[in-house]
Amino acid sequence: MSQEAVNGVPCRGKVLTLDTMNPNVKRVEYAVRGPIVQRAVQIEKELREGAKKPFTEVIKANIGDAHAMGQKPVTFLRQVLALCSYPELLEDNKFPEDAKKRARRILGACGGQSIGAYSASQGIECVRQDVARYIEKRDGGIPSNPDNIYLSTGASDAIVTMLKLLVCGEGRGRTGVMISIPQYPLYSAALADLGAVQINYYLDEDKCWSLDIKELRRAVTEARQHCNPRVLCIINPGNPTGQVQSRQCIEDVIRFAKEEHLFLMADEVYQDNVYAEGCAFHSFKKVLFEMGPEYSSTVEMASFHSTSKCYMGDIQILNHTVIIQAYLNKKDPISLCSILIRKSKRTLQPSHMYSTQNQLLFPERTAVLAALAEKARLTEQVFNTVPGITCNPVQGAMYTFPRITLPQKAIDKAKEAGQVPDMFYCMRLLEEEGICLVPGSGFGQREGTFHFRMTILPPTEKLKIVLQKIRDFHQRFTQEFS
Ligand SMILES: Cc1ncc(COP(=O)(O)O)c(C=O)c1O
Asked: What is the CATH number of the domain that holds 113?
């Protein structure tokens, strides 16, 4: 700290500097917003300023941001949101009566009839009741208690809050949290921030990124030597790997969690995004209850859903705080959802398919899902025609995580440049073709393998261009370094 005096008054250094900041935060990395994205933004600026490049726009296929990629918002949701945020519009006859009814109900449950008011910590009660009803319906009638629903500002917020509750202890007693590799970097970032021990279990790329209980067992056994494994995180459908877990696999995971006395965190934000034939989404909660009280009354679990994915891809504008009560009822797993769920899910049930203005709502959802399914197939198909790229089927979620074979000379060149090889590859792709992807190293991958993650969200015609550009680039890159 500098102690130089100015006019006789000691001048002390800044309180917050890179050297003095929280070391846990310093360890946090978030690949989907990392250096490659920063460079993409810079290139966009250069293009705006008239720089000549081999392309005229940067296509950002790095992040699962549906609306940014041109996905059409569901009209009814936008109407309700507009009415809630500006209630004067309730007098406007451009808005359908059912949207007004929905908005009045929400406003009636808010303090001062305003969505700007603080809500109860757990979220607005009538919304939690609706979420519980939705979950019951989704799970074939298995009861869901609104008291176990916690609304949050997004799945990220809820996951971090839950992890905060679970992480404790020191030294070998420090909480270990099992996460899949490849993983969604929210998890590694949150664990670094909390100073928890990250326990990696690897998904099996040769078996379509499936989860093998033997691998879970290996990971937990090794981790017991240096920490206290207490939590198992599962992402289903998977990000970045796009796999959908079979029911059998979910049962096996639940049995494993019971045997190893682990708290289960089921990240199910892509539950509506299932495309592959023969695949279906099974909620962990449903499977847990169907396994009977031996499991449902002992295994502790929280599951997470979001409104920022699939056909919603929406923001949450209702204002509320979230504090997870420290008490968790073992008998009834909790669900943490963000708030638009209630509006959308109920809207999209058959009886709600038409607004009073006879505006068909259902096709908006169907169109989005059909387009995603087509893009999932197209992506797999095109990548698998490129020598040096292998791509598993995109069974669900919004991403593909193809494996790329990189020539040794390219690996050496990357080392010289101080970059990991797949970062070097993605940077070159960005500079030469204007395509922004995320290097596989940002998600974790088996030593010696290289990947990238790409979203399948760009509109079909644009996606075809993206795939073509990657194909051309990969061939050129391979030739250059062979
Ligand atoms: C697996 C997974 N979990 C959680 C989230 C975060 O969801 P939200 O946008 O609701 O914070 C994402 C977002 O991409 C995700 O892919």
From this structure: 3.40.640.10
Nearest to 354 by CA among 17, 80, 97: 97
Q: Using CA positions, which residue lies closest to atom 16 of ligand 1?
A: 239
What is the residue with the minimal CA distance to atom 1 of ligand 1? Answer: 239
Put simply, whether the predicted model's pTM sits higher than 0.90 gets the answer: no
Q: Which atom of ligand 1 is nearest to the CA of 239?
A: 1
In this structure, the residues whose C-beta lies within 6 A of any atom of ligand 1 are: 64, 154-156, 184, 186, 235, 239, 267, 269, 306, 308, 338
CATH of residue 44? 3.90.1150.10
State whether 156 and 250 are in the same domain: yes
Number of domains the chain contains: 2
pLDDT tens digits, one per residue of 116-162 = 888 887 888 888 888 888 889 999 999 988 888 888 888 888 899 89
Q: Which residue has the tokens 């590799």?
A: 181
Task: Let me know the angle formed at the C-alpha of 457 by 285 and 239, rounded to the nearest 5 degrees.
Answer: 40
pLDDT per position as a tens digit, 70-96: 888 888 888 888 999 999 999 999 998
Ligand 1 centre to CA of 62 (Å) is: 14
* Separation CA 108–CA 75 (nearest Å): 22
